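Why does residue order matter? Because the sequence determines the fold. Keep that principle in mind as you read this record.
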Amino acid sequence: TWETAEVNAAAKQPMSMKEIPVEFGIWMTKNGSYKAYNMTMSGGQPCTQESLEHRSAVPNRNFRGQISIWNWRQGWGFITLEPGASLPAAVQAKIKQMNDAARKKGKEVQNEKALYFRKNDTRQGFRPEKGATVTCQIYTDDKGAGACDVH
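Structure:
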């Protein structure tokens, strides 16, 4: 067994850790049971949400946009980039993939170029609000494209 406190998640906790390869140490408790400690992903990488989703940031680029949707109860939203924002081809392909997946699930895509973000993707102290103008970085991951370092 493992305890949440023993997951090395770089001061964060991943949402789900089902069926992922990990590395860990083992210790025996006073009553003779074994427990894991300092659990990381393969290679010692912290078990963060970003790592689990295989995030890859677009390097050295900031983008401006506006928060078009903000669900404060669940801590997620979408950012619409400024008109004319030039996105790398890989990001455009991931946005298309993300929108196609949403349509396949029967969801309506309101904005073809909106980028997903979570509260954890915002800078400390920033309070997301619908309509707020923001600066952010962009990443791609297993699910599509999103915004991070939102402020």
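Helices lie at 49-52, 89-104.
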